[in-house]
Design brief:
Rossmann fold; seven-stranded parallel β-sheet; 13 strands
C-alpha cells in the first residue's frame, strides 16, 4: 500500500515504517557525529520509550554511551491493513539498529501503569542485563487505570480558578483563533494529577527495587516542562502544572530511596518541542511556532535528540555533574528561557494573526516537525512506493 499522512485533530492516524526508520537513523547519526559519552550508564530503562524525548533518550543511551536499553511503551502494531503507530515503527527500528551494533535491546509493549507490565519488565531485566543503572520516566498518557483500585482517571488541559482566553493555533484548519477554556473542577484536578503526577514513577522505582534489578548507585530522571508566562494559565498554573508539582515531590521521595546507594533522582525541565503530547495542548502550538522562528534565527534551536545529548554531556556523564536550580531541577530549557528569546517571542505573540502567521512564526517548521513524528517528509524516502505496513520485532 502507498501510505500518506491522514491528520485528525492533533494526531496523524497513519505512520510510515520506512520514514520512521529513517527518522531514527538520523538521530543515531547525530549522536555518533557528536562522539561517545564517557562514564555513561551501562543499562537503561526508559518508561515511555517510543517517541519524543523517550525515544531520543534510548538513542543517546545506546549510541552515545554504548548502553543496553529496555523500552516500555504502549503502541499498536499494524492490524487489518492499517498502519502501526509511529512509536511501534520507531521501536522496531531502534531495536534492530542496537542489536546490529552488538547492544542489548528489548521492549515491553503494554500499559505501563499496570502491575503486570512492571513485573514483566523486572523479569526481562533479570533475564537480560541483570540490572539497570539509569531509569528514565518519560510517560505521557491521557488516561490511567489505577493498578490497585481499578479506578479510571483522565487528564484534562484546563486552567484552575478562572477561565483563560488567548490566541491559539487551530492546526486542523491552519488558522489563528481565539480560544476560551473553562476552569477545571476539583475532580478534574485530582484526576489529572493521578495520570500525570509522580505516583506511577514511585511505583516503578519500588517495583524495580523490590525485584532486585536496580544497580548500586542507580539514578533516575523524569522529564517535565514549565514554559513561558504566556502559557502558564493553562500549563504551569493549570491542571498539568499541579501534576508536575506532584512529580517533583515524587522526585524528592525517589532521591531519598536511591541516595543510600549513591544514586540520585531529579527532574529535567526540557525545552518546548513538537511532540504528540505538546500538539494537544491549547496555545502551545502557536507558542512553539513563534519560538522556533526566534531560536532558529539565533542559532539556538534544539530538538529532542540535541536536548538529550546535551543533558547527558553537560549534566550527567562525560565527567559532568548536574547543575540544579533552586528547586533541585536541571534546566535544559535555559536557551528557551533566555530573556532576549522570551522578549522577542512575546512581542511576536502580541502581533501575530492569520495575515502575518507565516511572517512572524515558523509554522511551516512546526508542520514539518509534526509530520516527521509519523515518518513523513524524510529525505531519501520514496513515499510513492507501495510498502507493507506490517513490521515486526525480531524474535
Amino acid at each position: 500500500m502507498i501510505i500518506r499522512p491522514k491528520i485528525r485533530g492533533f494526531v496523524c492516524v497513519t505512520a510510515h515504517p520506512v520514514g520512521c526508520a529513517a527518522n531514527v537513523q538520523e538521530q543515531i547519526d547525530y549522536v555518533k557525529s557528536k562522539g561517545p559519552l564517557t562514564e555513561g550508564p551501562k543499562n537503561v530503562l526508559i518508561i515511555g520509550a517510543s517517541t519524543g524525548y523517550g525515544l531520543a533518550t534510548r538513542i543517546v543511551s545506546a549510541f552515545g554511551c554504548g548502553a543496553g536499553t529496555v523500552g516500555v511503551f504502549f503502541e499498536r502494531p499494524s492490524i487489518n491493513g492499517r498502519t502501526a503507530t509511529a512509536g511501534w515503527y520507531n521501536s522496531v527500528a531502534i531495536e534492530k539498529k542496537a542489536k546490529e551494533a552488538g547492544l542489548f535491546a528489548a521492549s515491553v509493549n503494554g500499559d505501563a501503569f499496570s502491575d503486570g507490565v512492571k513485573m514483566k519488565t523486572v523479569e526481562l531485566i533479570k533475564n537480560g542485563p541483570g540490572s539497570v543503572d539509569l531509569v528514565i520516566y518519560s510517560l505521557a498518557s491521557p488516561r490511567r487505570i489505577h493498578p490497585k483500585t481499578g479506578q479510571i482517571f483522565r487528564a484534562v488541559l484546563k486552567p484552575i480558578g478562572q477561565s483563560f482566553s488567548a490566541n491559539s493555533l487551530d492546526t486542523d484548519n491552519n488558522v489563528v483563533t481565539r480560544v476560551t477554556i473553562d476552569p477545571a473542577s476539583d475532580e478534574e484536578i485530582v484526576s489529572t494529577r493521578a495520570v500525570m503526577g509522580g505516583e506511577d514513577w514511585e511505583m516503578w522505582m519500588d517495583a524495580l527495587q523490590e525485584g532486585g534489578v536496580l544497580a548500586e548507585g542507580a539514578n533516575s530522571m523524569a522529564y517535565s516542562y514549565i514554559g513561558p508566562e504566556v502559557t502558564w494559565p493553562v500549563y504551569k498554573n493549570g491542571t498539568i502544572g499541579r501534576a508536575k508539582e506532584d512529580l517533583e515531590k515524587s522526585a524528592r521521595k525517589i532521591d531519598s530511596l536511591l541516595r543510600p546507594g549513591g544514586g540520585h533522582a531529579f527532574i529535567s525541565v526540557n525545552k518546548a518541542v513538537v511532540t504528540q503530547s505538546s500538539s494537544a495542548i491549547p496555545v502551545v502550538p502557536l507558542y512553539i511556532s513563534l519560538l522556533f522562528k526566534v531560536m532558529k534565527e539565533k542559532g539556538t534551536h534544539e530538538g529532542c535528540i540535541e536536548q538529550v545529548y546535551r543533558l547527558y554531556q553537560d549534566h550527567c556523564y562525560n565527567g559532568s555533574r548536574p547543575a540544579f536550580d533552586e528547586e533541585g531541577r536541571v534546566r535544559l530549557d535555559d536557551l528557551e528561557m533566555r530573556p532576549e528569546v522570551q522578549e522577542t517571542t512575546n512581542s511576536l505573540w502580541a502581533k501575530v494573526n492569520m495575515d502575518n502567521l507565516d511572517q512572524f512564526s515558523d509554522y511551516a517548521g512546526y508542520q514539518e516537525e509534526f509530520l516527521r513524528l509519523f515518518g513523513f517528509g524524510l529525505e531519501g524516502v520514496d513515499y510513492e512506493v507501495e510498502i507493507d505496513p506490517v513490521v515486526e520485532f525480531d524474535a
